[in-house]
């Protein structure tokens, strides 16, 4: 199956790369309208996935990642129109000059070619991945999780219907419907068809792709994000930031999983946080010895002793590790040790501490006095994202259109030899 689908998307990439910006934008707007028209059809198939997930005892938080509602379909349509409105990076000239030999040299932005995407749960990734790849002149081979198979299939069917209607090759997108591990591993080995592979999901998935893949990999997704409450922090602000970062949508990669608190404010801050957070949603704290004593003295504040593994865990649930530190340096050392290099935040009123934190924390996004939940392609002005890259080569942070391109040099001479 991989050989057949890989050959199709490889061939399609040549056609998609030739489409004009006008053609691509017009198609994306048409697809947006088609999603709205097919809302009932999409939700019907998504209901099958949700029912299956509930039968298998999947937690409500993870079911929420899977569920599509009329509003979420509408949001996908809005995202398509936003991508259509963005400048097309393909063909952009990054630099141009004439060298000492009289050669005219241009560096131009071009498509990557064929993108492979392996992802879990959230079926909206199907639309995000296709639209971003299509806008940048790439074809895409998708492999979603078995839990979202019916949702992904209907979304790809709708995309293909619209491609055929516009006379564009419908192999601009293909879906690997066989969700077995064997086929996924074949996809990771398909370097004759795929130019880049982007895994989006759990640490387990991403690590497996890194280990098995022959295709160049861009790591995305794992978010063990931390909020550090400094000794100079406005504690009311800190409480609201932690609550938002942890509870607003705990199943996403930019939700906070860890809390680090300066020992000088822990006795005042942690009881306040317990009181404030339970008004929004109960959270289980897994705390070090000092924080545990404070938390367990509070009424209706679930807290247990943390293990070393807790500080490095992406829970995707209403669970949060808590670490007390005696200095900013200790906080930075702790965060850099356990961080997934996604998003980290400091709450502080000390300008120099803020600057030191931003300078020394090794992450794609480093915040001062704000929730980690803002790490998002739309929020960062990219229109949309194919994922949050936590590595340093090619792309880092929210990956928008430019991250799905490469460059090539165009050189024009008048007979020069060397």
Explain how this protein is built:
With 418 residues, the protein is of the alpha/beta class. It contains 14 helices and 16 strands. The strands form four sheets. The chain has a seven-stranded parallel sheet, sandwiched between helices. It has a four-stranded parallel sheet with strand order 5-4-3-6, sandwiched between helices. Strand 9 (284-287), helix 12 (289-296) and strand 10 (303-305) form a beta-alpha-beta unit. Helix 2 packs across helix 7 (149-165) and helix 3 packs antiparallel against helix 7. The mean pLDDT is 94.
Write the layout of secondary structure elements.
Blueprint (H helix, E strand, L loop, with lengths): L1 H15 L4 H17 L1 H17 L4 H7 L3 H16 L7 E6 L5 E8 L2 E6 L4 H12 L3 E5 L5 H17 L7 E3 L5 H8 L7 E5 L2 H10 L12 E5 L5 H13 L8 E7 H15 L6 E4 L1 H8 L6 E3 L13 E7 L2 H11 L4 E5 L3 H10 L4 E4 L19 E2 L7 E2 L6 E8 L6
Parallel strand pairs: 3-4, 3-6, 4-5, 7-8, 7-12, 8-11, 9-10, 9-11, 12-13
Antiparallel strand pairs: 1-2, 2-16, 14-15
Helix pairs in contact: 2-5, 2-7, 3-7, 5-6, 10-11, 11-12
């Amino acid at each position: 199956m991989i050989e057949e689908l890989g050959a199709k998307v490889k061939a399609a990439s040549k056609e998609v790369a030739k489409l004009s910006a006008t053609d691509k934008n017009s198609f994306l707007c048409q697809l947006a309208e088609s999603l709205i028209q097919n809302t009932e059809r999409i939700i019907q198939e998504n209901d099958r996935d949700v029912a299956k997930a509930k039968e298998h005892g999947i937690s409500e938080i993870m079911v929420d990642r899977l569920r599509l509602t009329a509003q979420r379909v509408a949001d996908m349509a809005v995202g398509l129109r936003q991508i259509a409105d963005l400048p097309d990076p393909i063909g952009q000239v990054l630099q141009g000059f004439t060298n000492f030999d009289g050669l005219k040299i241009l560096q131009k932005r071009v498509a990557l070619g064929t993108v492979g995407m392996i992802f879990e749960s959230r079926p909206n990734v199907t639309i995000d991945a296709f639209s971003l790849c299509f806008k940048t002149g790439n074809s895409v081979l998708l492999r979603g999780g078995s839990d979202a198979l019916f949702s992904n299939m209907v979304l790809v069917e709708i995309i293909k219907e619209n491609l055929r209607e516009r006379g564009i090759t419908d192999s601009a997108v293909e879906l690997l419907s066989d969700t077995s591990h064997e086929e996924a591993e074949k996809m990771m080995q398909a370097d004759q068809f795929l130019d880049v592979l982007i895994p989006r999901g759990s640490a387990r998935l991403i690590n497996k792709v890194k280990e098995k893949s022959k295709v160049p990999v861009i790591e995305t997704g794992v978010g063990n994000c931390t909020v550090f409450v400094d000794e100079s922090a406005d504690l009311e602000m800190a409480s609201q930031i932690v609550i938002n970062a942890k509870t607003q949508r705990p199943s996403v990669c930019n939700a906070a999983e860890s809390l680090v608190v300066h020992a000088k404010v822990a006795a005042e801050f942690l009881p306040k946080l317990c009181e404030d957070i339970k008004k929004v949603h109960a959270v289980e704290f897994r705390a070090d010895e000092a924080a545990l004593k404070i938390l367990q003295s509070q009424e209706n504040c679930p807290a247990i002793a943390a293990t070393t593994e807790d500080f490095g865990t992406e829970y995707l649930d209403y669970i949060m590790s808590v670490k007390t530190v005696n200095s900013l340096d200790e906080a930075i050392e702790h965060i850099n040790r356990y961080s997934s290099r996604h998003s980290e935040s400091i709450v502080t009123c000390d300008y120099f501490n803020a600057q030191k934190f931003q300078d020394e924390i090794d992450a794609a996004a480093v915040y001062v006095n704000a929730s980690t939940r803002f790490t998002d392609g739309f929020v960062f002005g990219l229109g949309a994202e194919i994922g949050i890259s936590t590595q340093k080569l090619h792309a880092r942070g929210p990956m928008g259109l430019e991250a799905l391109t490469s460059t090539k040099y165009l050189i024009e001479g008048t007979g020069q030899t060397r």
